[in-house]
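Exam prep: given the inputs below (a chain plus NDP), describe the expected output before reading on.
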Amino acid sequence: MKITVIGYGIQGRAQALNLRDSGHDVVIANRKDKYLTKAIEDGFNVLPIEESIRNAEIIFILIPDAVQDEILITHVFPNISEGSSIIFAHGYWLNYESKKIPENINVFMIAPRFPGEQIRKTFLMGGGVAAYVDIVQDYSGNGDSIIKNMTDSLGFSKGGVINLSFKQEAEIDLFIEQFMAPTFFASAETAYELLVKKGYPEEAVCLELYFSGELGAVRTMMGRDGLYEGFQKNASPTCQYGVSSSRSALWDEDMKQKAEMQLERITSGKFSEELSDHKYASKVVNEFVESDIAKDIKRTEKKVNKIIKKYL
Ligand code: NDP
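Solution:
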């Protein structure tokens, strides 16, 4: 099929390569910016967005969620042909802006659960990663077969295809990002501050907290074996007792209310409103990654990097 992939970043590159290897005629749409050269080096024809989609049967939207609205409204919708299909890798734009979709096109979500590197790696190994799919608008009436063709071509059919509405996909994903990830940052920062203040060597604290890669390895094992089985198979008896006896003491009703508060921020649209103000969002991120504690931790990470060798 004639496919245009808009964006050649984390998802764009992996998906474009898989689709081309599966026999499709793939072109890349990218502005004259840093990722353009990579697409050309990989042997793709790179065109301006408008030109790339005029003849496309399928268009993959693989640019960051926060810029999708502008690109779709300005470049894609005015030039797209009747009966073509747009495929999103995440339900984010759809969740907040789907009223803007023209009536005479197909729209699908194929949302892989992994970054591009694993998507490409598993494909080359003859497998694939799992993905959520949703038929959002089936103008041509053959949405099922288009999704099947694309998930087969991307390798996702081998990893497992699960039906999930774009709304739920977007909200679950945002919730994990806005509840579990900040909780991890907060606990790492708090532990670092406390232990260093009490005189423990900062390099050892940093290494122990996350920098050795052990934590990532444990999470990978939990992804393979299950949350509790992974824990019981891989943690020492001392660790198992330490975790089991502390869980309730650290997590009370207050945290459940905070979880609800974060979900409400997403479902009410407040989060997307904030994110669409690019200047405000980047100011908040800069303040976070340049805070006093962040600077302290980054300084320690540099010291640790001089001492240990990482092979991960
Ligand atoms: P990336 O940040 O890797 O996308 C980078 C690409 O977007 C580059 O080609 C870049 O081009 C282009 N781009 C960036 N800003 C603009 C802009 N303003 N106008 C035009 N092009 C722009 O994104 P991801 O691959 O991470 O995400 C793509 C989609 O996939 C999103 O919907 C995301 O939610 C979804 N997704 C991502 C996953 C992941 O692991 N990252 C997992 C599952 C889904 P250049 O800078 O050269 O202009």
